[in-house]
Each structure stands twice: as structure tokens, then as C-alpha cells.
Fold each of these.
Amino acid sequence: MKSLTIFTTLLAVTAAKKCIVKAPADDVTDVNAPAADGNIASDDEAANVDEPIADDIDSADEKSDAEAPKGKLPASFKWGAATAAYQVEGAWDTDGRGESVWDYFTHLYPKNVESGDRTNPDSTNGNVACDSYHKFDEDVKMMKIMKANHYRFSISWSRLFPDGVAKKVNGKWNVNEKGAEYYDMMIDTLIENDITPLATLYHWDLPYALHEKYGGWLDYRSQDDFAKYAEFCFERFGDRVKGWITINEPWVNCVGGYKNGPGKAPYRCTGEAPRKLQNDTTGLDLEGGCSYEIGPSQYYKGAEVLPADRAPQRLEEVWCSHNILIAHAKAVNVYRKKFQKKQKGLIGITVDGEAQIPWEDENTTPEELENNKKYANLAAEFRIGWYSDPPMTGDYPESVKQRMGKDMPVFTAEEKKLLKGSSSDFLGWNTYTAHWAEQAKDEDGKLIEPPTEEEASYENSKKDMWDDNCRGRAPGWVCIPPTLGSQAGSSWNTKYGPTIRVGLNWLYNRYKSILKNGIIITENGCAQPNYKVSRANDQVTIDYFKSIGKEEYADAYDESIIEDESNIEGTILHDTYRIDWYKQYLENLRLAYVEDGVDVRGYMAWSLIDNFEWENGYETRFGMTYIDFYNDKELTRIPKDSLTYLAEWFTENVEQE
Ligand code: GAL
């Protein structure tokens, strides 16, 4: 193995805070940047966190402003692509791996996953996926093409601990050794190739055994089980892994899996009158229907024990979020207490969420726009701050607590202490699209008032708020235009480059007194448009952007760029829409750094390769590398044009050593 290029070196200070802080070039950056909330920690408070070493790391590697050419990102910029274990590894039952909730639920309800070839039993799950378990060398070749210096991957908990419970007895872990050897191999291979590993501990693939035992994240015991599993990972891999992400997207994990089921495992849904999901469901059933299969759970220690196999309950996603955030904090605590000083790595969480753009059209008055900005901030506190505030400030945003009233779980004093600053090393942010936001109106066009104190509840918490990337929804979650940007290949996925700049500013302004090593974009990317997504009426969107003087976002596309599976050499490999996506988003990221002074330190494109796109199966392609999942037994990796485009962008826009 080569000498280690440790993550800390690559986390060298970009000096963004000190460099070239100009007035924003466009009002896009200040649309909803909030002044710090009352509950945001001051510098002093943030420094209180028991974690002194990130500062040392900073100063050791700091580059002077003079060395960073104006307009370029610094040489220390972390550049790479991301994947997740269940989406790429395959080998679902190889070498002693245990089942995750994704194995279990996709096997039980195969028709809830899209597939173009229902005769192929592997087309509706991650059984084989990209078979990265056996083909990792080929993935590395793709990383090299894009000139990646980092690779973000996730570790499958049930590959290491098939029943989810990690234990160390007499100095020996009960680990599935073969599984651990796979990650040893991956990590070593990356380092030999000068690619720094950035490892995510949890990307939605909870061991099924824990779901059966206590309902997974709905039970407080998940916190300690996660922290123990994390401890094993730090101990085993931490000599080589210097960048850790605890949890990927708590919002999607909890809202997708415990509220909006059956899209995401474990297929719980708490919408109105949930129907019990039948395993003979015909076709993709996203209109309702949930799994009742679950173990007996206790939301918190001492709480009532909820029986096994119960119907989904109100507030499940709220409790899932609560437990997962505490689990994150406990894992960080283990790392800081036992490993960080010696291993000198950094640890943080990855949250997701759309930046919120205040709605504006030619009739919007200045007063209305001001009010919409206020609502954009509020919407961002609900969508992002709910998950990003606790690991920074130690608590939920005031607005969320007030509006949720007694439906909001409360962190104990000890939990708050653990949470506060638990992502101060860095914050990971996954960003794809944007939302418009404004104060909601009733049917007569009258503004809806915020909930009063008595009204505060889960159901009322957002009654006066409106946010979406469309101006409305038709049945089947079809966008009513104008949409915020053009429609990419997934219903929620629209292309609006400024969102990354708006969101980076929002997060950075909120947490700059706490963050020690800035923000990393841990995912961003798009599915090339395809025929499966119903397209919004482009003309309405184009007219809208023209009417507000932002013609550059009126980028409709014609049929010629839509993915055509029968002609791989065409729009699949020549993915011009995706190239334009990266161009727009990366330019906005660059501006956030050079113009706004946002301390953004990395960008991981989603995704390195086409892979198992959850409920969309293999039908929606986010990759920069093509795989013919149905016909090519070898699963040959074929680079798309976007992969080389990213290499070019990197060379031109990132300072080269
Ligand atoms: C993210 C998720 C990824 C990937 C991506 C594209 O929310 O973390 O696993 O699926 O979206 O949908």
C-alpha cells in the first residue's frame, strides 16, 4: 500500500472565509439567507464542543490566499463521485451478508419497484445491481476517467453484522470477517489509486433483523446499535478512512420509509387510511398501501411498547428522525472519544433538502416578495434545518418546535450536549433541485395565517406554508407548470443550477460560526430525461422565466435528447442534458466559493455508475457510466460523455498542484 494521502490533507483550509468576499453578483444568493436564529450557537458556544483537533488540522494545511487563483477552486478541493452499498454492490447473500430492509421488502413486494423486464427476478432489487462486490476495480477505472481524488461509498451494516448487533467480547468483534475484508480491499484499492475514501456508515440499508426485533429507527435501541456498529468501522478502517459520514439523508430515510411508503423500505406510510400492502400488488403502487410488518417498538426509553405488526401510526417519521439524529450524535461521540485524536479523521452528517426560492412573478409586489423570503426561510428550516440544526446547535429550529407543539419529540439535556457540534467538522449536503416558497393562500386567494399556539401540531405546522418545484400537482404527482427548471428523468428532479448557490449560502450563513471545515456537496446529479417521466409543459416554464428576466433558466429540451434505450450510442452515452446540468450546478458552486465566500470544500457527483435507483429500479439512470443491466451478463462499464466532461471541468476550474 502506498503511503497514505490522508483525508486531513485534502481537507486543507480553502481560506474561502477570508478570500474575495464580494457583494453577490446576483440577488440569487440572498433570497433567503437568514440571520442566525436565536438558537444558533455563538462562536464561544460552538468551541465548547469536546473536539479540539479539527483546528490543528486546519492550520497545518492552510494555503495562503495568494496561492488560490481568483475564480478557481483550491487544489485541496475534494472531487469525486458517490454511490451507496445497496445500489451498487449486489452479492446480497454472498459471504455471510445478512438481509437489510431493502432486501426483505423488495423481495416481498417486487411489484413496487419499476422494471422493464419483469421476467428477470433481479430487476426489482439490488441482488446483483452493478456487482461492485466483484467488479470494484472496474469502478475505479471510471473514477480515474473523471479525475476523482475522492470516492464516496457506503458500508453495508448487515454485510458486517448480519443481525445488526455488533459486540466486542474479549477483545474480539462478532463481525462477518469476509464482509470486512471486502471493505479493506476497497479502501486499499482506492488509496493505491490516490483516491481518498469518504465512507458513509448508513445509506438506508438497515439490517432487517433490527426492523423485526424493534421496528428499526422507531425504537430508541437503534441508537446504541448504530453507535456500536460505527465503533467497529472506526476501529477496523479508521487507520485508512479519514472522512466519515454517519447518516445519509435522514429526511429521505424517515419520510420516505415511514411516511410516504411504499416507495422506500420499510414501506411504512402514515398518510390517510393506509391500506395494508399485499404482496400480490399489481404494478408499482405508490398511491397508498403500506407494510404492517414491524417489530414491537418503544420510541424512547420508558415509552409505551407499541405492538408488533401494527398499522402505521401518526408521527412515525418524526420519531424515526429523532432516533436517527441521536444515533448520529452517539457515533460521533464514540469517534471523538476513542479514535479521532489518533486517527486524525473528520466526521459529519449528510443532510438533503431543496433550497427554497421565494416565488416571484411580474405581479409580485415588493412587500409580497419580502414576505415570500420570510416563508422561504421558514420552509428551509422545516425541510433542511430540522435535520441540520440538531447536529450543529444541539436542538431543532425554534420555528419547527413552536409549530409542531406537543407533537415534537424533545431532546434530553444529555442528548443536546451530544448533538451540539456533532457535525462541526464538516457538513455534507445532498442537493438536487429547488423549491419555490411563499405564504399559502386559501381557495379564495386569501393568505392563510400561521397556526396559533393552541393549534400547533404536526398537521398544522405548515398550514400557511407552500413549497414545491411546480406550481401545483395533478393526480399521480404530475407537475403543473411552471416548474423550477426543466424536467429531468425523475419526477422530483428538475434542473435549476442556482439552487446549489442559494442553499450553500443559506447553510453557510447559518452555521459558519460552528463549521470548522466547511460544507461538502456529497451528492448532486440528474437522470437524463426519459419517456417514463411525464414532462411539464415546457412553454409555460419558458414563459415564466422570461417574464421575470431569467431567460437562462428557460432551458427546455427537445425530444432529441431523451434517453433512447434502443440506441445506446445515442443519447445514453452522449448525455448532453446531464452535461449541462453539471455545468450549471458547478458554475453556481464556483460562484458560491469565489463570489460569496462560502466555505465549500468538495463535490461528489451522483452517481459514478448507473445503479439500482430504489423504487425506480434500473429504469432511471443517474450514472455517468452506462451499464446494460438486462442484457449484459458482464455488466460492462461504459463511460458516458459526462464522465469526461467532469474531468475537463476539474482541470479548468480547480487549481492543479
Ligand atoms: C439521493 C440518494 C441516492 C440516490 C439519489 C438519486 O436522495 O441519497 O441514494 O438515489 O438521491 O435519487
Amino acid sequence: MPTAAIAFDAFQRLADEDCEARIVAAKAALGKRAVILGHHYQRADVYKHADLTGDSLKLSRLAASTAADYIVFCGVHFMAEVADILSRPEQISILPDLNAGCSMADMANLAKVERAWRELSEVFDPDEQVTPVTYINSAADLKAFCGEHGGIVCTSTNARKILEWSFAQQPKVLFFPDQHLGRWTGHKMGIPLEEMPVWDPDEPMGGLEVEQIRKAKILLWKGHCSVHQMFQASHILRYKSQYPDAIVISHPECNFDVCRLSDYVGSTEFIIKTIAEAPPGTRWLVGTELNLVNRIAEQFKPEGKIVQFMAPTVCMCSTMARIDPQHLAWTLENLVQGKVVNQITVPEEEAALARLALERMLQVS
Ligand code: 13P
Ligand code: SF4
């Protein structure tokens, strides 16, 4: 008789050390049938179990190329969706806690993007004028929208190349959901700020005048990351007044002033690589999520590199942190029993269009 999946209740009160041993045992039992992918922001007690780690671009490539039956994604919901879209139909993508979402991704939804498209059509035909570009931090239906309307997906690593591709298709871009990544990338391409107005999805016509829409090169969706918005220019100025030789490196989800005051701006993978390649004894101020900064600080301490977190307060990706050792142990032990819990499935019609936008991205970058 078929048995039911093991309920999470049994894991809820499990001590972290017990989870650790059970994760190791379950991984050994599963062997190559399961691969654990871990984003750089993942908490240390989960990250250490990842077989492969990376930024969003690297993880999407890994998801597309793994041979494992089960892709256990220690990241957030949109990442597990991308894994489902890019993997083979028989592979199974799993998010150990379904509550691990992304607050930025939630700032855009299909109804609002479709409304924006309708409103734009009062000024011009958006399908003849606008390339929709979604940051990978978005739901699958928004990626599908981009696939359907000649658009594309970008990550923090390839945003510039993707915008260049987009402008080769149409003269304008609608960029969602992160205004900061869009603005910084457009600025680096030489686009004046006046030609990158913010589209407020809660206002009629995005809160813009028709003339502003006509003049715009990039319409920036009013969205942001709740973690990266905590970093401020004043944090950089204060630290630099104390340590003038400090090198500042930030993620492009930080606001424009923070990016402008930074010596380097780039993805999580770029941040790690840049500090790894720097001379010993250098001092760094880093504007990105705390788990990653702590890991980098530990990793490069033996080389005498000093790595300081940018904000005075704790800025963690609290949604990603919901994937704790308890949820990972529960997920893996179910797989050992042949039970799949928390599978992420994107409906095929939506997945096909989203795949189009993702594959355009993978080809361009
Ligand atoms: P990366 O692609 O740089 O890893 O960024 C993902 C993310 O969600 C940053 O907040
Ligand atoms: Fe989303 Fe921000 Fe977390 Fe990145 S750090 S996954 S953008 S909430």
C-alpha cells in the first residue's frame, strides 16, 4: 500500500545538529539523483549542504544542465520556477519551504503589467515600440509575458547586454520589477535620468504625462528590494571618512546614490570574484545581503582582507532564510522515501513562453 509523505511536524522541533546529520545521511542515500542548488544569500547552515552555488544567472545555467532527477533549490520561489522551466520535463524542481518568496518579485504582477501595456497603447503601439524586460526576480507569468511580446529576462550580471539587445529590437524598454537595476544599467549606457522615468503601477498611466512617456527610453517599474534599500550613501561617506583607502562594492539593486559612490557595482558572483582577486590587506565595504558578506569576510580573513557590511542594521534576505536545516532535512528524507514534497510546477503553456524569454537571455549572455 502506498505510504503518505512524512509530515513536516516531526522536523519542526528538531535541533540543528540533528538536522545536519540527517541531511548528510539523506544526501548520501540519494546520491546523484538529487542536486542541491544554493544561492549566495542562503544561510550558512543550509549553504554548506549545497552541491552547487552561484548567482541567479549561474544557477539558471546549472538548472538547465544538471542530470539529476531532483533539483532541490535553496533559494527563493522564482529561482525554483526557473529551474522547472529550464530543466527536462521529467526532472522535478523543489523549494524546501514554499514561503521562501522574494519581496521584490511580488512588486510586479501580470495584471499590473498587462494594464501598463494597455495604457501605453493609448500613446503608441507598445508591440512596435517597447521591449519588455523582466529581471529574473519575477514570477513565471511575467517571464511568459516577455516571451510573448518579444521581450527577454535579465539578471544583475547580464543587464547591460540584455538592454543592448532590447534596444536593437525596439526603441524603448519597459523594465520591471527593479527600478534600481534598470536605472543603474541605463545610466552606465549613457541614458540621461530624465529619459528613465518611474512607472508607478498604482497610478493611471504610471503617474506620467504623455510627453514623458513619448520621450522615455526606459520606463522603470516602481519596485525595489527590501534588503538592498537599507544601504544608504551616508553609510559609505561615514566609512570612507574613517578609512579613506576602503574600496566600496555594491549590488545593483542598491539605490542610485549608493551605486554612484561605489568603486564597483555587480552581481553576487562578481562581488565574490572581485574581492577574491584583490591584493591581500585590502579593506572592503560591501553593500549586499548579510549572509554573503559574513561568508566573504570569513573566507578572506586569512589573506588579511577586511570585509565590512555596509549598513549598521541587519539586512538579511529573511524570505530566503526560511529555508532552514529543518525544511531541507524534511525535503530530502521524503525524497529518500520516494515522496516529493513542495514541487514547483509552472503550467506548460506559461512555461513555454517563459522559456522563450529565458532562452533569449541565455543566448545573449
Ligand atoms: P544575483 O543574481 O546577483 O545573485 O542576485 C540575486 C538577488 O536576488 C539579489 O538580491
Ligand atoms: Fe528578493 Fe531582495 Fe531577497 Fe534578492 S535579496 S531574493 S531581491 S528579497
